[in-house]
Amino acid sequence: MTTTAMTAIETEDRRQYRATRRRDFAVDLSMALATILAALVIGFLVMLATGNDPVRAYEVMLTGPLERSFRVGRWLEDATTLTLLGLSVAIPFRARQISLGAESQVYAGALAAATVAIFVPLPPVVAVIVPMAAAAAAGAGMGLVPGAMKARLGANEIVATLMLNAIVVRVYDYLVNGPLKESGSSAVHSKSIQQDSALTPLSDWFGVPLGRANIGFGVMLLTAAALWLLITRTPLGYRIRMTGANPDFAAYGGIRVPRVIEWSFVIGGAVAGLAGAHLVQGVYGRLEPGLAGSLAFEGIVVALLARNNPLVVVIAGLFYSYLRAGGDIMEQQTDVGTEIVVVIQAVIVLLVTAQALPNLLKRRIARRQVGVR
Amino acid sequence: MMNEPWGKAGPAVAARQVTKTYANGVRAVRSVDLEVPPGEIRAVVGENGAGKSTLMKMFYGLEQPSAGAILVGGRPRVLRGPASAIALGVGMVHQNLMLVPSFTVAQNVVLGVEPGRRGLVDPKAAVERTARLAEESGLTVDPRARVEEVSVGMRQRTEILKALHRKARVLILDEPTAVLTPQETEDLFAAVRRLRDGGMTVLFISHKLREVREISDKVSVMRAGSLVGTVATADATERSLASMMVGRDLSLDVERSPARPTETTLRVRCLGYEAATGQWLHGLDFDVAAGEIVGVAGIEGNGQSELAEILAGLRRPSTGTVHLDGTDTAGLDVAGHRRAGIGYVPEDRLYNGAALDASIADNLVVDRHDRPPLARRGVLYPGAVRAHAEELIGEYAIRTPDPSVPVRALSGGNLQKVIVARELSAGPRLLIASQVTRGVDIGAMRFMYERLVAARDAGAAVLLISADLTELLGLSDRLLVLKDGRLVARFDDTTGLTEKRVGLYMLGVEEHGRDRLTVGLDTLTAGPEDPGETT
Amino acid sequence: MSSVLDVVLSSAFLAAVLRIATPYLLAAFGGLVAERAGISNIALEGQMLSAACTGALVAGYSGSVALGAVSGVAVATLLGVLLAALRLELGADAIIAGIGLNLLASGGTAYAVYSLLDDKGGTSGLKSGSLPSITLPGVENVPVLGDALSGQNLVTWLAFLAAPFVAWLFYRTRFGFHLRAVGEMPDAAESVGIAVRRVQYTGLALSGALAGLAGVFLSMGYVSFFVRDMTAGRGFIALAAVFLGGLRPWGVFLAALGFGAAEALAVQLGTLDVPPQLVSTIPYVMTLVALALYAWRRKRRGRAVPAAASL
After folding, report:
1. Do the Cβ atoms of A252 and B333 come within 8 Å?
2. Which is an annotated Pfam family here (chain C) (predicted)?
3. Where do the CATH 3.40.50.300 domains begin and end in chain B?
4. Which residues between 169 and 208 in chain C have a beta carbon less than 8 angstroms from any beta carbon of chain B?
5. For residue B401, what is the DSSP state?
């Protein structure tokens, strides 16, 4: 074989490879859209079967969040927390650690942020940053417990994070009902945070009422960009990716796998802690019972939808929150329960995790193209 | 068990114009015609990827032909799965044994066709049946032992008993000797001959031409998915079979000049290792000098893996010292070992040699991702990683369209080239090469040999661990033999050394005295008395 | 202190332990069967929830407790089969698919209850009844234990029979033999002609059925109506018991019983002027510590983590 023939073959190989990559990307994108569409169709059928008017319900759900500026604010505020929680699990997931601990981390973060913001007098600006830092540190600490148990002892992280969630949620409940409860108030919540510690509302900047949306949204965007850079542009990110791809290979290559696992938990925990700070300093201005609702678990769904890519997590988080916001408006204006949104979300998760579907499709397309030639 | 009726005459198994094309377009088997009469031992040989395993899987129902017909007992059959092949009397012993580790030998033998009534298992009957089968066939096993606790040889005998218990009339053995000691191989061959004399048809898949000549009645040679030809074993020589396999006369003799060893690079003293599971090591003393290849021979599982992993820093020794260029490696982690100049080609590349779903580029930088030119001040530059990969892909002739291809898509030989490229491009002072040519084709094998010799000539110390004696004798300047975790032989000159002779030491028939093993080594205590270090 | 002892030694406390441990035991055995078949069933929670909701609704509308219980178990069984299908046919990750099924169950049950009864909280407006209690003749004459045992729900008896049943199934029957082989070495099982997928489907169906029985107990035994998200994480605790019990029937039995006892203790101590939220963390703290100790011991012994658990 001559050199020129060899080069010709290689160029041909390369062209074919690039074409395959382009086609796979197109299939992935259309699959994502088809998945969402399929889930909406299933929701449509469920509503129809339960005697509701799905057309009207979808109309309200899909246009409602944009109709008034404060509804947009409601959407962005929810998306901020949800995306931060999605980012918080995407990092350990990248190291193939099934951390389900965002719940414990977000409550720990909320407690830390509230404690500082309520009780420690600080000058302006610093009064915003210190509680957030405290929240990130508390979340990171909550991440370190299951992280170290997994990395040092090999304890199952799914069980450890679930147990920690159960513990922290109960301790939080105790503190809000007991020591931190505002005295003299009949409702259960803490004292309000100091004025200087509040995250600036977006309404102040845009001059339209945007509800409780605040500059936490910008913090979330910055965090996502930083995490994307961490994963793709730093040695630690490389170590996280290799640990996820094959821990035995990583260890053989000189990577300290236990330390990488711990870092992935700690970074994820810190981000979830920030979500807690956002809830306290930006949304509620104090501690309330069950402050994070089911957001921690839904963050997992967002991360999965985005295949743990930090930038895509933002898009998935915005989309998902849009559905949630629309669902609430739908329940107010029609008879359809907002839970239909959860059903739609669940169907999306199930379709996304069915990885054989896109592969089947890709293979079929590839075969057809071979046939055409 | 009811075997379906076989035709009176004709071949036990046959393939008629069988073609297998996988969904990804790879044509593994092309229009193969093969007939094996009852009571014959038929060897099927070929390079990796020649299609022999795929053909056997079709006989066993694990794959279905895309075109053509599979015949068992003289009739065309549709084998939808192993269950239908088993029902027709076809048994297969896979290369990687298909046993349940926590089950006993007897439980594994009866698995799938357990004795007992109404959905229950009768454990006593299972043990009795296994013991009876073992006695009849001469395949000795302990029916009550757990499979995870018995030797590889016994596991393989368990596999064969499994097939016998299912009343197999055709037995497919896929590379059965790869993990056996020479003695166990002999016993296996004796048992196989006995089975053949009792009417069993045996299909014997192998790379090892010497064993093929010893055991088979006829040899079928496959190349690139096609059947090249079938010859009577008596008429074949290793050389003629090899030329049929590769299509030209290819000698694996490696050209190498005599070694010019200089100063001692690796110095191992009193090295011991104790493990809850796995092989122990006892008091190993040896040196490897820069510019020489030292081979480590031994039947697999005699401490080679443990030795390699200790030297690479993946395990900690219980006693003794390891010095590299005078530096004590105790207390160094894996990265520290690599920084000290140790490269390691691991024995199982799929287990820890590569991250299969990561790109070629990422696989090439695992040991250097945190320093220039790839990373500066905590920032990793993807462009630099890609350029680094393109350079090595060219230099090591890795066949791939792009560095971003996941290594899962590469063939065995190409994947091994990625690993060797990474380890050699680090410029190691000591290269530990473990089973470096296992499962790669002859072209890649040759490539690896040339690179190892080139590394030696460039001044690296090379420790070559292999189960392939031909390879060891062809490449090693000096040779050590491990048995039961001890050094039992040391040959400072490998010219004229024969496989048979080394085999005697591997089996423990002969042993060198301690004087001969340690002659020329400096201090033999494990302490830091090395004068080069105290100054 | 003596008051605590009095509480713990009373037959009322023992009866509470048996009652509280019932859903843990059943769900944990469900988790065990799936785990040994090689597919982690993290959807135990959703299966319990769906069964609890279906049971209460069907019983309420049909007036037949038995029909309700059977439909509840059937729905959970179907969810088990669905998980297996997602894993085996569509290549889904079992953990993620399990999370999806849990979400589906949480949203679906709440949506169904709201659509049918216009109630956000549960089915307390619908009269659905309970499964029968059973008192063995003469058992009340046994001191302490007699009072604890008499009048326990049918499902509680079934839960305690589940341990010997699963042990017998695993180690004595052909199906259990195949199930363990499939979970440990699917290739080996397939190579001897065992229908691997069929075994896994059956295992996951059984797993779902056991979880379903646990769910039916919650809405038709523990109380007599369905409350939104009434499983309250029991499915996850049961999963913890599976690992804590070392993937062995009697180990899982002890772990699940331990969780039941700890929770019963928390309820009893709650009456003694200790903050109930803090007392109720006790079983979880215990699990966390036990998990760490168990992992540490296993690590010291140098044993490998079981394949399904390492993930």
Report:
1. no
2. BPD_transp_2
3. 264-341+427-534
4. 172-175, 177-178, 180-181, 184-185, 187-195
5. S
- Give the integer Cα–Cα distance in Å for A64 and B146: 65
Residues 6+ apart with CB under 8 A from A258: A151, A152
H helix or E strand, kind and range, residue B334: helix B334-339
| Contact with chain A for residue C1, Cβ under 8 A | no
Give the residue with greater pLDDT, C166 vs A190: C166
Distance between CA atoms of residues B476 and B262, nearest Å = 16
> B373: cis peptide before it, omega within 30°?
yes
Q: How many CB atoms are closer than 10 A to CB A119? A: 11
Residues in chain B: 535
Q: How far apart are CA C258 and CA C261, in angstroms?
A: 5
How are beta strands B293-297 and B478-483 bridged, if at all?
Answer: parallel
Per the CB < 8 Å rule, is A235 touching B362?
no
CB contact at 8 A, B402 and A11: no
Q: Render pLDDT for A39-87 as a digit per residue (tens, 0 to 9).
A: 889 989 988 888 788 888 888 888 888 888 888 999 999 999 999 999 9
Single out the residue of A218, A109, A256, A230 nearest to residue A172, CA to CA.
Answer: A109
Band (A265; pLDDT cuts 50, 70, 90): very high
B375 touches chain A (CB under 8 A): yes
* Cα angle value A113/A114/A119 (rounded, 5°): 110
CA of residue B61 relative to chain centroid, distance: 25
Domain B264-341+427-534 CATH class label: alpha beta
Sheet holding B41-45, edge to edge: B90-93, B170-174, B201-206, B41-45, B218-223, B226-232
Are the beta carbons of A339 and C111 separated by less than 8 Å? Answer: yes
* Residue entry with tokens 């319900």: A57
Span A106-129, pLDDT tens digits: 999 999 999 999 999 889 889 899
Partner B contacted by A370 (CB < 8 A): yes
Walk me through the domains of chain A, giving residue ranges and CATH numbers. Answer: 1-52+337-373 (no CATH), 69-334 (1.10.3470)
Per-residue b or e along A163-177, where b marks 16 or more CB atoms closer than 10 Å to that residue's CB:
bbbbbbbbbbbbbbe
- Whether the CB-CB separation of A231 and A308 falls below 8 Å is answered with no
Buried b (16+ CB within 10 A) or exposed e, B440-479: bbbebbbbbbebbbebbeeebbbbbbbbbbebbbebbbbb
Report the pLDDT value the prediction gives residue C58, as an integer from 0 to 100.
92
Mean pLDDT of the region B356-382? 92
CA distance B67 to B29: 10
Please provide residue A207's backbone torsions phi and psi, each rounded to the nearest 5 degrees: 70, 10
Instruction: Give B-chain residues touching A237 at CB under 8 angstroms.
Output: 380
User: How is residue B425 written in tokens?
Assistant: 């491009």
**C-alpha closest to that of C181 among B92, B162, B142:** B162
Give the chains touching C; criterion: ≥3 Cβ pairs < 8 Å: A, B
Gap between the Cα atoms of B32 and C228, Å rounded: 64
Contact (CB, 8 A) for B352 and B308:
no
- Per the document, the length of chain A is 373
Contact predicate B221/B230, CB 8 Å: yes
Within 8 A by CB and 6+ apart from B250, the residues are B242, B243, B442, B446
H or E element, residue B432 = strand B430-434
Neighbours of C296 (CB within 10 A): 15
**Residue A84, SS3?**
helix
Residue B356: CB atoms within 10 A of its CB come to: 17
Give dist(CA A155, CA A149) in Å, integer: 5
